[in-house]
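quick one before i forget lol
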Amino acid sequence: MASARLTLQIPSFITALIGTLINFVALATPAWQVVYVRELQQWIQSGLWMNCQTRPSGMLSCTYTFTKNDVDFYTNAQVVNIRTPAFYDWQHTLLYILLFGQFMALFAMICFCYSQSSNVVKSAQLLFTISLGLSALINIGCNITFQVFAHMLEYRFYHVSVSGIYEIYHSRYPQEDFFAMRALPELPSKYRK
């Protein structure tokens, strides 16, 4: 007969597995901020490490960065944004913290598998609980942080309109809600300005 602890750990293992897979899919896509630029007739998608632009002809071009050295710091940020949205330090930091949270979730699942052995039941169960809780806190904290930073005015998209005036575009239909933020409420409108 299964112990009470095991009946609680199996659903948490399944939930952690599903959450880890969804988070990996969310990290692999650039669709964390999505905007349609009318003047340029293109969709622009920005993620934590990749930006993609869909041209009017349908061609998709993507740029990516993993370190600060991949970004040209000698050019004005608004000028760089004409070609592709800039990658900010907070995006890199969140990416690394989220990857650490994913590692903690994978470590928790390995601990669950070891907890089925009679030799290390207590310590593996304790490590499973601690690492899964830490992973959940890291992932929730990073997703809330992304939501706050993505709605701040200085991190929205800058593009040159047809008239040559810089305009600020913000994501109207963020796709990160679909993958990573479904359970969290939308920010109130007073914090979006």
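fyi DSSP finds five helices and six strands in the chain.
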